[in-house]
């Protein structure tokens, strides 16, 4: 989805309009940095001016109908005629710290795939190996992530790692740790989790 060149509303106008109407507490972005950071994921990116109500459905070119999103979030955003839904969506995804959004989404994807949380799996592995989450272990985790991210980036050639890749890297971290410390993984607990299809749980 590409931004229409004809949009006249400026980035400043959109920030000025919305900063007076929406509380930044419920957002991933601080209004002071909303000229440069995506309003949904909070990452510093080139921002696209996105219609809240699509122009194809009569949405106007005015600050009240424009939000600023990165290319990736723009592609994911709702294109509907009820203007409240854009803000419902942006607020639902808010995170408290910059540069954590896509990692957290990777954890959400991990939980969706494996029916257990990354944090719980990591805690189980550390407990079984009699380890604490100290600087050494955290350093090892960072090293594995760094290595896997490098491989994934080169292999796929995308400007970013998608959520399935992030979830996969999380999984590889756990497998690598478990192997290094000779701990069984996946655990028996995971094998006995209910296997209701995801489309029934919706
Ligand atoms: Zn974004």
Descriptive notes:
- This protein has about 200 residues and is mainly α.
- It has 2 domains: about 80 residues, DNA Binding (I), subunit A (Orthogonal Bundle), CATH 1.10.30; about 100 residues, no CATH class.
- Helix content is about 50%, strand content about 5%.
- The chain is built from 9 helices and 2 strands; from the N terminus they run αββαααααααα.
- Strands 1-2 form a two-stranded antiparallel ribbon.
- The longest helix has 22 residues.
- The model has no long low-confidence stretch (mean pLDDT about 90).
- Zinc ion binds next to helix 2.
- Number of β-strand runs: 2
Can you list the ligands bound to this structure?
A: zinc ion
- Order the strands across the largest sheet as they lie in space: 1-2
Relative helix content: 40-55%
Number of separate structural domains: 2
CA distance, first residue to last residue: 28 Å
Rg (C-alpha, Å): 20 Å
Q: Summarize the main sheet.
A: 2 strands, antiparallel
Shape: elongated
Order of helices and strands: HEEHHHHHHHH
Q: Total helix count? A: 9
Low-confidence stretches: none
Overall structural class, as computed from helix and strand content, comes to mainly alpha
| β-sheet strand percentage | under 5%
Mean pLDDT: 90
């Amino acid at each position: 989805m590409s931004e229409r060149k004809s949009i006249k509303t400026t980035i400043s106008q959109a920030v000025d309009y919305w900063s007076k109407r929406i509380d930044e507490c419920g957002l991933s972005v601080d209004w002071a940095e909303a000229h440069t950071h995506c309003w949904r994921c909070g990452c510093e990116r080139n921002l696209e001016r996105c219609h809240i109500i699509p122009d194809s459905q009569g949405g106007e070119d005015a600050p009240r109908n424009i939000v600023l999103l990165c290319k990736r979030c723009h592609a994911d955003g709702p294109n509907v005629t009820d203007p409240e839904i854009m803000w419902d969506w942006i607020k639902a995804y808010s995170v408290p710290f910059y540069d954590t959004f896509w990692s957290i989404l990777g954890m959400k994807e991990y939980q969706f795939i494996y029916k257990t949380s990354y944090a719980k799996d990591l805690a189980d592995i550390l407990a079984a190996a009699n380890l604490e989450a100290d600087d050494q272990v955290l350093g090892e985790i960072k090293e594995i992530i760094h290595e896997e991210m490098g491989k994934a980036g080169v292999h796929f050639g995308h400007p970013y790692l998608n959520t399935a890749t992030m979830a996969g890297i999380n999984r590889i971290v756990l497998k690598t740790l478990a192997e290094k410390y000779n701990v069984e993984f996946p655990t028996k607990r995971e094998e006995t989790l209910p296997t209701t299809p995801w489309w029934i749980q919706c």
